[in-house]
């Protein structure tokens, strides 16, 4: 953990509102992105991100530094989203709005409208396939392939071993390949 972040965390734990706001600001976009991938729409993602940030605010004093702060934040985000999915009926994702907000697997460099349309169609297929994964596989795929976390960070965030992370990523990717190959025929 960077020393500056560690000092900011300590200040936040001692009641500094400015330090807490600095931490929230640093992680709010990643929290929203993870929430969006889980919830599938902007409104629910915003709700889960807000709920996560409130939990961080309420629990900052309980952070002990046994894992990185980012792993702690990701764990809270994932758990909040999984709880949200259990409580609510999942809505259908709007890929057009997702693409506009940079949240889909859309190639922003697509040179022509046709290429962009194909990219959006591919993004829809990928998101639909991810949505069919079980929670264990979905979690690791979102954290690794969508958000770029390391195996160690995922291990800490989900409180599972690195071996389990690798195994779940492998199985999740295999399932995605099967689904995406099947969908293309």
List the helices and strands and how they pair.
Elements: H1 3-13, H2 17-39, H3 42-59, H4 69-87, H5 95-100, H6 113-132, H7 135-146, H8 151-158, H9 162-183
* Helix proportion: over 70%
How big is the Rg? 17 Å
Q: Would you report the number of β strands?
A: 0
Overall shape: globular
Question: What is the CATH superfamily label of the largest domain?
Answer: RNA polymerase sigma factor, region 2, helix turn helix motif
Mean pLDDT, rounded to whole units?
Answer: 82
Low-confidence blocks of residues: 89-104
**CATH fold call of the largest domain:** Rna Polymerase Sigma Factor, Chain: A
**CATH class assignment of the largest domain:** Mainly Alpha
Quaternary organisation: single chain
Helix/strand order, N-terminal first: HHHHHHHHH
Largest sheet: none
Number of domains: 2
CATH A-level architecture of the largest domain: Orthogonal Bundle
Q: Strand pairing plus helix content: what structural class?
A: mainly alpha
The CA-CA distance between the termini, in Å, is: 46 Å
- The percent range for strand residues is under 5%
Number of helical elements: 9
